Amino acid sequence: MTTENFMKAVGLKAYLPISDTNSLVDVQLPVPTPGERDLLIKVEAISVNPVDTKVRSPKSKVEENYRVLGWDAVGTVVAVGSKVELFNAGDEVFYAGDITRPGSNSEFQLVDERIAGRKPKSLSNAEAAALPLTAITASEGLFERLGISEGKSAGKTLLIIGGAGGVGSIAIQLAKQISGLKIIATASRPESADWCRSLGADVVIDHHKDMVQEFRAQGIQYADYIFCLNSTAKYWPVMSELIAPQSIICSIVEPEAPLDLNLLKSKSAHFVWEFMFTRSMYKTADMVEQHNILNRLADLIDAGKIKTSLSKTLSPINAENLRLAHTAIETGKTIGKIALTDW
Question: 161: which residues sit within 8 A by CB, 6+ positions away?
Fold first, then answer.
């Protein structure tokens, strides 16, 4: 922080290709003041997600004031709002934040206490920053949207399309906690397939080949659950064929065109979305569940049952390194997560 009331940040006014140096720029902004349920966090590490690149992608809109992106962070609570109950100044936290508020690409950030969790003690700042958005997405998708549970999912098959990315990397590990659940993940390159196996996938198939044939070569007719983390429209015919009757498909990727839901009718199959910002956007009555998810995740990590999906770290946190991270993500070939540390 260069003065008492201002902070370093990376922002944008125009939505430009990442190759343009003005797509993300270093700026100084006022340090925000916490509201009633807010934590003021000194940000120490962040990570970058596809949502960052999607929000930043070229469009005609121009912001009057600098917009700060970023939806994954680790930091220390330096001040709390008047009605905060879950944390105190000095606590180390990690969180994904709220897409309707300024993001984590700044030295200080406000976040509602109900969507923050305690930082895992066994991880570095970069390792922890790689996790919140993907872990919340994976947890909500698997256990709330798909309804996977220890009690009813043993002996069933889960197909994860896009297993080597950020969400897939955590989804495989979380699903592995369900005893007897068979996990089939997709990956197209030897290194991404190896990554999925190292995280606990029982089988890896190539989503660039005939996926129906690849899947059924495992001696399984249908998947009891499908979690789509890549191109819903592209894989819709495959998912419609592979989903078991009276079962569920969950996706996190909006399609480029409307989906033909008639493909699911004869199977009485369900389709459901997972969007981890829903709770914070709409201030749902169960918003605090994201706090609970992150705390449960921290317990699993500190018990050695889940490992970070961090694959690369850049330092310091600045516009140049964030442009490098966005560029890598836009290739569609990243494995795990990219984090940035220190200002």
Answer: 186, 207, 226, 227, 228, 229, 230, 235, 239
CA pair distance 132, 39, nearest whole angstrom: 16
User: Strand 223-228 vs strand 270-273: parallel, antiparallel, or unpaired?
Assistant: unpaired
**Assigned domain for 1 exists:** no
pTM of the model: 0.94
Q: Are residues 48 and 155 in the same domain?
A: no
Domain at 122, CATH number = 3.90.180.10
Nearest to 24 by CA among 74, 67, 71: 67
Q: Using CA atoms, how far apart are residues 294 and 119, in angstroms rounded to an integer?
A: 8
Cα–Cα distance for residue pair 109/127, rounded to 1 Å: 19
pLDDT category of residue 2 using cuts at 50, 70 and 90:
very low
**DSSP secondary structure of 77-112:** EEEE-TT--S--TT-EEEE---TTS--SSBSEEEEE
Same domain, 284 and 253: no
State both tokens at 217.
């070569």
Q: How many CB atoms lie within 10 A of CB 164?
A: 30
Token readout for 277 is 């910002």
Q: Are residues 107 and 154 in the same domain?
A: no
Length of the chain equals 343
What domain count does the chain have? Answer: 2
Q: What is the DSSP letter of 144?
A: I
Structural domain boundaries, residue 91: 6-131+278-341
pLDDT digits 0-9 by tens, 270-301: 999 999 999 999 999 999 999 999 999 999 99
Question: How does pLDDT run across 186-204, given as a tens digit for each residue?
Answer: 998 999 999 999 999 999 9
